[in-house]
């Protein structure tokens, strides 16, 4: 549909906890960002995997409820991403994910480059943005600014990624049947 860019290898798909993910061949205009993020890693064959979680409130706001919600989304993303990347790494796949708190990569720690989640969603999914104070905020097509974005990366086929996500989903649902 219109909400997915031409480069999507996996269209926006809902996984555990209502989190959405998609997978994209790294587009030309995103290659410099990817190669700055992961020194020495070629962006050829690199999948960029943005995820979005719907939040209870607009994350533009400040205060304790927003901080609690961000922490909650952070924990869920890290749980999901760690499981997916563990499966991929066991198969010898190069992969990584971003710590949404710092914007730094979690697996390959040679880079101090900060990943631009908002720019990635604009580039990959044509999402709109809005300005809030000094921050650029991404607008999800149905959730608006009540969204928590975070990304993963892998050098594998879409099929291999789907299989790893299916394993991660099964593990998460085994401990959290509500997921």
From TrEMBL:
It holds the Pfam family MMADHC. Transmembrane segments: none annotated. One of its GO terms (biological process) is cobalamin metabolic process. It comes from Ostreococcus mediterraneus. InterPro entries: MMADHC (IPR019362). This is Methylmalonic aciduria and homocystinuria type D protein.
